[in-house]
What does this fold into?
Amino acid sequence: MSLRITLITAGRILRQLLNDRRTVVMILAVPALIISLISAIMDAAPAVFDQVGLILLAAFPFMLMFMITSITLLRERTGGTLERLMTTPTAKMDLVGGYALAFGVCASLQTAIAATVAYLWLDLDTVGSAWTVGLIAIVTSLFGMALGLFVSAFASTEFQAIQFMPVLIVPQLFLCGLIWPREQMAGWLQGVSDALPLTYAVKALQEVQVSSDLTAAMWGDLGIVAGAVVVATVLGAATLRRRTG
Amino acid sequence: MPPTDAKPSAPPPAITVDRLVVDRGGRSVLRDLSTTVPAGSVTGLLGPSGSGKTTLIRSIVGTQKVKSGRVTVLGDPAGSKPLRNRVAYVTQDASIYPDLSVRSNVAYFAALYGRRRADAMAAIERVGMGEFAGRLAANLSGGQKTRTSLACALVCEPEVLVLDEPTVGLDPVIRDELWSQFRALASAGKTLVVSSHVMDEADRCDRLLLLREGLFIADDTPGDLRAATGTENLEAAFLHLIRELEETR
It folds into this structure.
């Protein structure tokens, strides 16, 4: 693995993205707009918005990274550029690192804009700091990237790649506590929820919501998400084959 | 490292294929192929589509899973790490990024090979794409995409250049220019393997490999092939070989 090639790869991926202005605008503006919409819907219950708006700050970059990673990597696989890269000095982890870096920059910008809007204009209120929320959002977004990397191996068209959203992403969103408190779910659903990494991102955010300290519970939950990033990245990298049939 | 001009008396072959067997989807695509490709030559790999040309090419660049046998390139196993700066591969469909300009595509591969931006511009000029350097690859014609893809390989100044049907759909003038470049590269000591299904390109090669149903039916120079079959042109020579083979079955 080489830092130089990882940076070159990240630069190439960002340049590709910059040539697609419409996508850039959507990435940066849409989450802030949706959070504003949710805030307007929940106008009568600011305490509920504090819960839901906060979770969305991590859920959006998570979904975004999943979508753009699965589709751009699928394009690399089907367009022949992946095979070509495998004949160059690029190592698999250079490619994965390049994607993580490039899309991590996108996720950070997206989170920064959405969080600025949420905290300054929509009166989102957390006891802990917005920086910690940002950190959790970025780690969660990397989990989305790693899942997208993995999924791109099992889709042969972009249409199929998008169909993995309802399979892998939506259940996590429904069960993580975003639409219904986990404690009020049936026992077996809580069990399923406990097995899903996004749940721990939400638990970490909820710690930040009630505590100004960086609690051990928060680090523990964030650590679980980070562990899931590593596992999913290793699984995803294993699907990048230098030799194929 | 570029090879020096001083040629040893018997230079080792650039590529050695030794009893190569490749199966795809339970079917034998390459059946026990052996050959050597001399350094500093243009070798034409000819055969109908489906004969296994791309599979053999992918085995040489090391992206094909092989069942048995071995391919050695410049003394190292095909696709191994030391070769990734020395062997370049141009795929059949242009493998470039449609959402990047010609310049950004070639500059990216230049950077991967540790070359400079100026080298990228030189490679773009060499394939005659200078005036389109700023254009997005998605907006190029098929032939322009192929040439951009070729520039992405030339930029690494490879010792071995493997090209899968690089001249399909190209303007005859550009096709002629490319073949002149291939000849010039071979004269400079580089080794080229070029697949094609156009027989009129065969005469521009130093050696020909004719592949049919996963087997070599000829491995010779164009001149010797004509002489051996008593035919005037190579198309006729190949037909002769195929008929001969079918009679012996």
